[in-house]
Amino acid sequence: MIGCIIAIIVFNIVAFKLNKRLTTNQVVHIWTFTIAFQCIFDFMLEFKYYGYWYFDKGADWIGILPHTVLISPVNMMFLNGYPFEHGMRKKIVYIVVWTLGALVYETITLLPEPWGYFHYGWWRLWHAALVDPVLFFMLLKYYKWICKLERQACQ
Asked: Predicted confidence band at 60 (pLDDT cuts at 50, 70, 90)?
């Protein structure tokens, strides 16, 4: 629990203090997308297939925290630093570095309580290593779509 609360506070402070790219509208879209996508994804993996879970197996009130206010600021930080104007190689390296960071963080969350709060069922770190880059790519596509919609709305 302590690890989750510290992460939420640190991630949110860093995300909002360092944000130089995202508009308020984009932040709202990213938060909404992240919460909806994570809830759908975790609903299946966490509650139907018991691949992993936060805190305790099954639905509980404290599990709302990582589903709502933990990942959205991470996505803000990812998008804020993404090298949109650079070549493919730099973009791939960026996603690889962020994936490695996510894997390190996931490993820390597996520590015993009070620091850890994430638990594996059949899910393993290598699953995250395969899925995380795809999730980052999906986030990028969503962000680009939101930017396109904003440009069209301003014409």
From this structure: confident
